[in-house]
Amino acid sequence: MALCLAAMLVSAQSYEVRTLTFEDADYRGSGNVVGGNDWSSLIDDAEYNGTLLYGDGKDTYMWYDEGNTELAWDGLQGVEFWSGGAAISNYYEADLSQADYTRQLSVPLAQSDNQFAVVFSFENMNGYPSWANCTPFYFSDGKARVIESVDVINTAYALNSLTNGDGFAPAATDESQFVVHFEGTHEDGTTSEVTFLLADGRNFVTDWTSVDLTPLGKVKSLRTYVTGSSDLEGDYGLNTPGYVALDNIKVRFELPQTVTVTMNAKSKLIKSLVNMATNETVEVGEPTSNKYTFDAFDGSYLLTATASDGSTVSGTIQIDIDAEHTAFTIYSAEVNVKNSGWTYGTDYSLDLKVTDKEGNVVNTTMGEYTSCSTATRTTSTSFLRPTAKQKATCPQATRAPSASTRPSVPRLRWATPTASRFLQGQPSPLAPRRLTS
What we know:
mainly beta; 7-stranded antiparallel beta sheet; 1 helix; elongated; disordered N terminus
């Protein structure tokens, strides 16, 4: 019996968005490294050479958005902030003439009631080693997630340098570029990147601006750094202050889909449903009128089906669950190979190929059950439904379903299993036939 799967399409949002705002009202943690239950206690008492970022606090300074986005940063690890980091801040300075290195944690606004993070981290385009590197933010629970967006703005210190120049860097020209990079690391260790221009010529980002990070896909960590065009660099790399301010980091948390799988009389029960990435088994519960209803996260799963006895395996099929694929109907088709003295695997083989409408091969395996006291091989993947006239009766010679009686299965093509005589090169009793729905 060949088993093949068809999917019904259902649209639904399969995630919720959580936002790291750095605001005390949104703090969900059990306490931070300085003993506070808020974000504001992580703001240093001075923007430069303060206690937390340069004094004794540098040995333990770190943060964790516990109970919310689960983003964490491992901190300065004993080095001063001038070696790179991500400091919580609420400082602001609109007067750029005052915005030197002592105002390194300020945004260039006349007033700011919000809290944010200032990242000091840069790379040199001329290849000279950078001396300021902020280690990545990462998800503390080890999961990979989509970071939807982040708000960015130039810091007052960097904007002053870009606008007016300073003792180290020239002012930006019409050809200058000052770029923030967001580098995401995936579960397999590969990376992808999104960039955003903080300065495009003399056009500067002077207010909070949202950057779309969804092109990164699911990431386990996020590294942030800036670069500058060659006119903003010197012999030793970037001269423009390598800072950027971040706020409102939005993270998608997947929600389980409500999934339905409708079985059939031949393949009546789900023996198991296993996540192919994590090897975790999904609890599918008990069926109602051959229909299972359960919750599962997006992903690829291997479904093993059985007959009504719960032990005779009909085969397996891969089903892919996402927001548009949550309802599956399992169909069955049967092909018998019967000839006196033939042994499966010795005298003949059965092969089934199932493809979706795009021509992609659907993952299937064959099961086995006993019908009319004859062992019958079955394969499972979606389950093509047999009509009453399609089923061969014992001891009738085996035949493939005719085109006039084949089941109508949307989105699938089924290649009839073919049998071949292994011994003495004798011909197969089955004439291969391809069915196209």
